[in-house]
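ugh finaly. both done.
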Amino acid sequence: MTDAASGDLLPFLSPNSLVVQESPAAPALRQQIAEACHAWLMRSPSRDTRTNYSRDLRQFLQFTGVPVDRPESLATIRPHQVAAWRDRLREAGLTNSSIRRKMTVLRSLYSYLQTYGYVGANPAHSDFVAAPSVSRDGKTVGLSPDACRRLLDAPQTTVRKRGAATDVPSPAGVRDRALLAVLAYTGCRVGELTRLKVGGYKQNGVHRVLEIMGKGGKERLVPLHPEAAERVEAWLNTAGIRDDLSGPLFRPATTARGHGCKGFAPRPLTRRAVQKLVESFVALLKLDPNVTVHSLRVTALTTAREGGSDIIDLQDFAGHADPRTTLTYIRTRDRLSKSPAYVLKY
């Protein structure tokens, strides 16, 4: 199998890559399991998901000593090996949510193999190995409305160059203001932000909307708050990319200096570039250092919920398959003030 975005894939996930040197019975079994593993991985339309699943499985096989080019050895895995891997991940400092996700990947593979015809037990099933519990509240820090407003207003559209008597325009600042507004007002994921196209910003009746490509290739149409729409309009005008409909909406400057005055490259900002951008403004404003780009998603969903939005509407807004996932993004602000400790009287 070849996949430009999945260079970390396991060899056995490509049936054609097998080299067989055993008895005549071994090739058939190996080929069947390799085909099943390949089908399991390719079930997801997301290249990122396939790469992550492959990486998690590779880590497990390395831990257990199973050669990646011997997929039939998956039948030898026992629950105690899964439990030992779970404990090793915890010792390595991984969070419960990360460990649980990796165990879910392993459980998913064996479940798929069973559907494919494998008659053995699922060694990662919860009946055999308990995954670590995860709090219903997510770990990502949310922002207060005041802190979010400060973050939205942090990028400057003009800068003072060294030795200059007056300020000069900062096209990158115009971009950053639009980028932060899209994150804060749509609650989109950072990966979704980097996949936005100029042509995905459009008029729909009286609404300005963004077409967002979510996980698994799922598309959703999200109305833009007037402030976000105004900022996107300013960015399109400044960058001169309004007619490049198939091009990325948010792009890096062609040079590291000049604040975008020399134009922008026709490629999307990377996830890491967006993360570093948010981190730089968080540090500049001296906000909670645990605030990340994902905090804007949490903030959007929490603020909308506090404003009276229905959980089903929020689920659609966030692009979640399950409303229970959406609930993990809702933070109860000022929870300590509402603690039962303050209503106790003796």
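ok and the 2nd:
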Amino acid sequence: MVVETIEEITRQKTLLFGASGMLGHALKEVFPHAVFLGRKDADITSLDAVREIIARHHPALVINAAAYTDVDGCEDNKEYAFAVNGKAPGIIAAVCTENGVTFVHYSTDYIFDGTSMEYREGDYPNPVNVYGQSKLMGETCIQENSDDYRIIRTSWLYGSHGKNFVDTVLSLSTQMPVVRVVDDQRGKPTYTVDLAQKTPEILSCEPGIYHITNDGVCSWYEFARAFIPNAVPCSTAEFPKKAKRPAYSVLVNTKTEPLRHWRDAVTEYIQKKGTR
């Protein structure tokens, strides 16, 4: 794909899978001319269905923001997780290749095991839970089926139109005297709006894998303390969950200019919530 400007990228014929999700809503603002497809509109786990959709719309670009993101739920629903997060991206990539279409897909920090302090794009993945395993499978299937792809790994995503950490903690903060938040998992919170707005720039770059997060590193507790006054730290062991989480999932972006600091992003998000 040869393009000259960000405006040209956002105006070309585009299909957006996962348009009804949290990231999908943010992408709709950046790609307003796209065909928006939610879960009810397209079975991305079906090769025939994906072929029919792409044949019908003849896009130049396909963006996949669809995913099964319930990390603990993936442990109980492995087959579904691997179908949606693993198999489907490979199917979309293969059909894009058949039609000469550029493909963008979003992946996760959870493909790493958290034993290193930070991770660059070329570092070896070793997921510790089913969600991470399924997302890594998706990356592998894309690379096996396409040369014109952009895999964008991100982390700790929050934004409007979906369940997320910021909204949950804000709600809990008004319901109880203290909110216990784990302080021994570190990463980079990322605002969907900033990630979506960065996507056209990534499309103007070479095919490959990109780490895109808001700048700055924190624990979940430090993140919560930035916007509620009554957070208190606890350990992961005190707050057990079904799926193991990596202790460090800090994605290092070595290929593009960084996004703004996470403190600025979450401040804007909360201010916008207050005006709605």
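summary for the 2nd one i guess: DSSP finds ten helices and twelve strands in the chain.
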